[in-house]
Amino acid sequence: MAQPENLLYSKEHEWVKIDGDTGTVGITDYAQHSLGDIVYVELPKVGAQVSQSGNVGVVESVKAVSDLFTPVSGEVTEVNAALENDAAAVNRDPYGEGWLFKLKLKDGGETASLLSPADYEKISAEG
Prior knowledge:
The protein has one domain (8-107): CATH 2.40.50.100. β1 (8-9) and β2 (14-19) form a beta hairpin. It has 127 residues and is of the alpha+beta class. The protein has a 6-stranded antiparallel beta sheet. Strands 4-6-7 form a 3-stranded antiparallel beta sheet. The longest helix is centred in the C-terminal third of the chain and has 10 residues, at 117-126. The protein contains 3 helices and 9 strands, in the order βββαβββββαβα. It has helices at residues 29-35, 89-92, 117-126, and strands at residues 8-9, 14-19, 22-27, 38-42, 49-50, 55-61, 65-69, 74-79, 101-105.
């Protein structure tokens, strides 16, 4: 699957959409497909200070429990509360209704260490 061009990616299979000083974070299609049917998502708390590549939660599927990492640092400003009742939205639409949380960016320069869609495509193809 081609990666959306308006996002940046981490090697841990998270994506971030940058809009000014706000980042919206989710997991990639590759990640949700590898996990299988997602049944539960533990998200960071609003107001939490998170650090780039830090563990911020858990994604649980019928196959595995996987740590959730943040691709950028900042303060969590919003979580996708709809996932409490419908974690499967991450499987259906990982780049849309399955987003996980939003944060106010601490350091916009951190995005330089993230992967472009083409670069992410190469590492996800390698498995």
